[in-house]
Amino acid sequence: MKMKCAQLILLAGAVLLAGCKKSGDTAADAPAPKDAAGHTRDFTYVDYFPEPNQTQMKSRLSGAEAQPLPGGLLAIKQFKLETFNTNGSPQVIVEAPECVYDTAKNTADSAGHLQLRSSDGKIRTEGDGFLWRQDDSLLTISNHARTVIETGSEMNIGL
Amino acid sequence: MKTFCLIALMAATAGLASHAQPGTNAAPASPRLMHIDSDSEVIDGNGRTVTHLGNVRVTDPIMKLTCTLLVADLPQSGGHPSRIVAETNVVIDATNSNNRSMHATGDKAVYIYNVQNGVTNNTVTLTGNPQPRVETAQATNSADVIVWDIVNNSYTFTGNQHLVGSENFSAPTATNSLPLLKTNLPPGTIEKPGF
Fold it and tell me: Considering only CB atoms, which chain A residues are within 8 Å of B77?
């Protein structure tokens, strides 16, 4: 088990990359530093669109810390997900103080708070408890969902 | 009615908002904010829908809507939501620029927005059981299907229409008419004062 955890720590990025395999190539912006406990800190992983937009970022996932848990899970602090259009313009930004990322199912969930906002800030959603299914581009906010929209906003939401 | 937009919806609100705009000399308005609260929410990036579930409450400066389920279709390239569906115990309260209020109820409300051949279609269709109804200061109208044409400020009542005038009900006048038949609208269409 220790070996498995160690591998997960060392390959946290690779695991996350594997979770992004459906959409296209992925890459880490820079090697994520790890502390003595093997926690990956200040990591960023990028998912690219498939051809013909393979040079454009589809999403960028970042966090302040990723701690491997049993079962292929990663406990992420300061979770942040940004999505982009094929022309490079930003779509939405999703932030949560913490969540657990399942590297096998490509999902992230938390009982905690979540905030989502469009790139122009005109659409903002928040709530408590969420499940993000990356492969299905599906975000469920479980409780106290609250959305504020500036009318005239463009509804361009991609996850 | 974005979701009704998102719910009355964003789109509907946007339509209502345009009706409520003051004259061209008005100072620039601050952003109109719509609040949508619900027990839970599902954003489907592939299906291009946003679903609000349970105790849905849409609050806008000129409209309030409550229902149990609200689903907004999101256009592929962004922009105005094309369709918003509110279901179960739908209640709409709105006030126009003349401070005329309306109260509408129905089991289901479908907001549609599209532009075809340069013509904007912006409607809310109320259906379901119990029969949908629209109440104003002048009258209460119920029918199997009620279509609220936001662009033309008119209602179309289809099937088992029932009209009850209030004490304020009066014959049409030049500036404050109800009902006022419009020859360029389908049979059964009446102009709703202020809406």
Answer: 156
Residue A87 φ/ψ, nearest 5 degrees: -90, 5
CA–CA dist B104, B91 (Å, integer): 6
Beta bridge partners of A127: A114
Chain A, nearest residue to B78 by Cα = A156
- For residues B13 and B63, the answer to whether their CB atoms sit within 8 Å is yes
> Which of A145, A154, A157 faces B40 most closely, judged by CB atoms?
A145
- The whole-angstrom separation of Cα B176 and Cα B173 is 5
- ipTM of this predicted structure: 0.75
pTM of the model: 0.73
* B158-177 residue pLDDT tens: 999 999 887 665 544 444 43
- The CA distances from residue A41 to A65, A74, A100, A102, B179, in Å, are 4, 12, 15, 18, 68
